[in-house]
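Work Package 3 (structural annotation) set out to generate three-dimensional models for the target panel prioritized at the project kickoff. During this period the team completed the workflow that converts sequence records into discrete structure tokens, so that structures can be stored uniformly alongside our sequence database. As a representative example, we reproduce one entry of 226 residues exactly as it appears in the project archive.
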Amino acid sequence: MSTTNWANDDAVIDVATRLAATLGDDPNHTVAAAAMDLSGNIHAAVNNHHFTGGPCAELVVLGLAAAANAGPLATMVAVGDGGRGVIAPCGRCRQVILDQHPDCCILVPSDGTVVSVPVAQLLPYTYRFPDGTAERFVRFNGRYYDDVVAGRKTQTVRYLDPVPLGPTTFVFEDGEHRGFKTLPGVIDSVTPIHLTDLDDDYQAGLHSHYPHMPHDAQLDDVRFHI
């Protein structure tokens, strides 16, 4: 199964895969998970199955990362034992990750490859924990870093990628190098627009970011500053 070809995604898949390969035949521990925080550190753990209801590997990772004061998690993956490869999280894990790390991307299998999906996309029309106080961040491709720092880029258009208003952290990811660059930033406005409102060149650029986006998609026009 091929990966997303991003260094951070490959790194967490590698850690979870190597951990899953050590599990042997123990029926209580059958899945390994790994997650990367914004400092580039990877936290990994395994599930703890029990007939009374043990936690999935993803939830154990959340606890492990919290114990390490890791802060927001950017990317997470689960890998099954016995060479099963990347597997999708269960419904409970999706809800917990959404509430505690709402900007985390989850690596899931799709048509023989692995894709990175914002956790919010895994739970459309979901319940939101009203008392959640998760620290938020907004992810950018690393090629925009210099333009954002210089103030040349103050707008981004997003598809199915909720962005919080107000102070946040801008996270820049380079496909070839592990880790992230971060900047403190502020989201000034989020305005709904339609893909058809944009010119052809802008539409083509968005389709390179979101290849499965429909031609009549509703988007968010996000304005920001550092």
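Helices lie at 7-20, 57-67, 91-100, 145-150, 200-209.
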